[in-house]
Design a protein that fits this description.
Number of domains of chain A: 2
Number of helices of chain A: 10
Radius of gyration of chain A: 19 Å
CATH topology of chain B: Beta Polymerase, domain 2
Largest sheet of chain B: 7 strands, mixed
GO molecular function (chain A): kinase activity
Strand content of chain A: 25-35%
Keywords (chain A): Kinase, Transferase
Helix content of chain A: 25-40%
Shape of chain B: globular
CATH class of chain B: Alpha Beta
Largest sheet of chain A: 5 strands, mixed
Order of helices and strands of chain B: HHHHEHEHEHEEHEEHHHHHHHH
Distance between the termini of chain B: 38 Å
Helix content of chain B: 55-70%
Strand content of chain B: 5-15%
Radius of gyration of chain B: 21 Å
Protein name (chain A): HPr kinase
Number of helices of chain B: 16
Oligomer: heterodimer
Strand order of the largest sheet of chain B: 3-4-5-2-1-7-6
Number of strands of chain B: 7
Structural class of chain A: alpha+beta
Number of strands of chain A: 16
Number of domains of chain B: 1
Shape of chain A: globular
Amino acid sequence: MQIIDTGIYRFALTSDVKHVHSVAKSLYADSSERDLPVDFKVRLVFDSLVRRFIKPQISFYADQHSPFKPLPLSQAPAVLEWGMNWCVAAHEYSKLLIHAAVLVKNGKAIIFPALPGSGKSTLTAHLGLSGWETYSDEMAIIDIDTAMVNPVYRPVCLKNNSIDLIKKWHPEAFFTPTCVDTQKGDVAHVKVLDWHRYQNLQKVPIVAVVFPKYAAETELTIYSLSQLYGFNSLSKNAFNYNVLGATAFNTVDKIIKSSSLFEIQYNNLKDVDAFLTEDIIG
Amino acid sequence: MVNVMLNTQFLYTLLVNPKLGLTLSLHEWQNVIFVLREAKLLGSLYHTAKQASCYDDYPDYAQKHLFSAQIYAQRQAQQITFESLEIRALLEQVGVTAVFLKGAGYTLRNSLNGRGRVCSDIDILVTKENLPKAERHLKSNRWQSEQLNDYDEKYYRQWAHEIPPLFQINRATVLDMHHNVYLPISGRSPDIDLFLDSRDKTESGCFVLNPRLSLLHSIIHLFTNEDSSSWMRDLFDIYLLAKEFNDDNLWEDIIELGNKTNFQFEVYCCLKALEYYSLMTLDRTSKKFIEGFEVTKRQSWILENAILPAFCPEHSLLMTNKISRAKNLAYLRGHWIKMPLGVLIKHFTFKSFFAVRDQIVGKHHFDPKLPDNPNW
């Protein structure tokens, strides 16, 4: 059994695939020393006799149950990260969870809700390795009363071309081996924080919500959004909005009223960094 | 360091006396949380701890899990109320009165055992005569049933006391519509008018069984069920119902109802189980009933070796060989009492074919129900 400590949630991992343990160790070894209880037990196991040997498949288990179908063995490390996301999204109702990246500078958070393919993770990895603090790549974890956002100790999940791009821009960063041919294409994780740096992070207020969209042919274009549009888009990106109900409504309302709201189209991350740093963080 | 002996008895004691939680170490809490999550009792502990005014003194670790479970249950209660009103209104259009059973019934009545409780479906009872028109009307109003294989379709239509589950096509709520509380094929279906006539109207306008019939139904449901995975929660439901609606004649009436419906052995098992897990001190009437009950050697063996140990939640932290065996026996017994031997053998042949097949090729190969991996 191996402890995976993401700061705010702790997991106990057992895996039939040794490789998964070594990947998890390379990402989380520095955080796993604390003697605390875990929130979730997760397992990667071979479920079927046949599928252990022919086109091998691996199943993810959250404690006693498997919430989704088995996937090809080659994707095992990615399955672990997705499964951990599932555990949090399916059990955490004391905080608002929004499918969004969170980047922080000078104690101010910008959240980036986005659909797959928007370039969100490339943006997060690059900025996270260029002077911003990455509070999350996938999930903004927000206190319901204060609307402050919490840091979580997780790597950034990169797909396809962005793996090579980030490797080129940040050769010093730590990358997990690439899982080939997952549902999302090729996948690798990059470490954007070390545990020491993470421990110094505090929860911070959200000052902006930015919907990013990568467009190869478009130089940085910024659209200011109405509060109504912002509210609608942000609430649709919340994982547990339907369960939290009125509480979630009020928290999203608080975020929208205290944030500037933008959609950006971009083809150059330096321009994005300059815009965020100068115009939003100020 | 884990000091507490984690077992079914301990978990019941914790639920009944939540102050015990104040003595647990964080690592003990961890295991308690895992097991209660599996037993669908996390939300219930939140409420009993709140009532005992000790929730705020629990460690943050425990609080965050109990709180989240309670929020989820609260949301579900809201949904149950909403769906029940919809179902009632729809069925009233064709002159059918539905009585809401089990979880939905507890929630609508707002009884103690509804608080923090989660359930997977809504159960209603209608007369057999009304069943076809109720089904037809629901099906022309956004309720559908899944395509079943011929065997399962026949199982429901010919032998069972309910029709195949209906689900609401927009909200995926599942509805089990019953015309009795136990399978007609068993030859033991009680006179259902006894249940239908003993209904109470709740504040929402929906009907539920009155507390005594509700208690009897919970007893019948638990002690004839072959699937023991929710037994721990179901017995806790019974304990809370009996506690909330206790008066001098409660058990006397339940025993009489058991006699009337011919579910005496189930009532006997229930009293034995409540006593075994220290949930209740038996009153004089119950004691007299237990002592006077002529239990056969086989029944007594089944109770000791199958039923009582099978209340254990199905979590690897608690499962022992003895408990697995008990659960298997409870499973066999549940089927054994349900149908005549010939039908039962056929039933097992079908079911074991599917089980073996799934073991070989993986259980998801033929199962379209589980979602694909969420694409984050």
